Amino acid sequence: MITIEHLTFGYSKRQKPIIDDLELELEPGRVYGLLGPNGAGKSTLLYLIAGLLTPVSGNVMLDGTDTRKRLPSTLKDIFIVPEEFDLPPIKLSQYVKINAPYYPEFSLEDMKRHLATFGMEDNPNLGKLSMGQKKKVFMAFALACNTKVLLMDEPTNGLDIPGKSAFRRFIASNMNDDRLVLISTHQVRDIDNLLDTIVMIDGSKLICAATVNDITDRLAFITTTRPEVIEKALYTQPGLEGTQVILENDGSLDTRFELELLFQYALEKGDELNKKLHNNE
Asked: What is the model's pTM?
């Protein structure tokens, strides 16, 4: 489990903190979506969790150990795939020989299986790959390390449509009760049916931290043309077949979760959303 306690971080003492007194628990066996507008601190939070940045105050604990200590026993259980990276101009087999020893649970068979999911060959020359191909190979290696925690920053950037579809299969088919996956993105549609828990941050604050089931227990998502329904809506957005609305759910409505609509609601009325989801806790 990852426990985030009173975490505060800023790149300059003269500016408002990007992360401010954040408290959050992330449990294994879940795929978390970390959402927020550009500049909200999503990437920063991933680096803080990985122990790559030092907070102003507070800490991030993985199974009781502060990740900032960067202990080998902790590092072997965390892998981060940043949004931007480069790979050396060597064969993948050489890359694996150099880097896999740092991850005791690494599986070459798993990596080959993941590469096949993306339609990639087993041993490409990393220096000759496009950015999208490099991302596929790096994600295949990351998942094959079989770490407890996998952090991914905008993983679908640079992927074509088949690649995005393969990414969803790639994550969904390799989850287990011991693995925690945290995906930071603003491309909500790419991963909406993959997530079981939503975390939203904006303006250095936590807006939402709830499972999809908890959200749909409290909120209903429908498309309607009925004025009396639109009038009662917490949030509305024009759609091709009517107005998309979010309503309070009294327990009688069973509707399909619309992550993109929730995301827009959060951006415009974050404090209100926070109260609707957490006021009875």
From this structure: 0.91
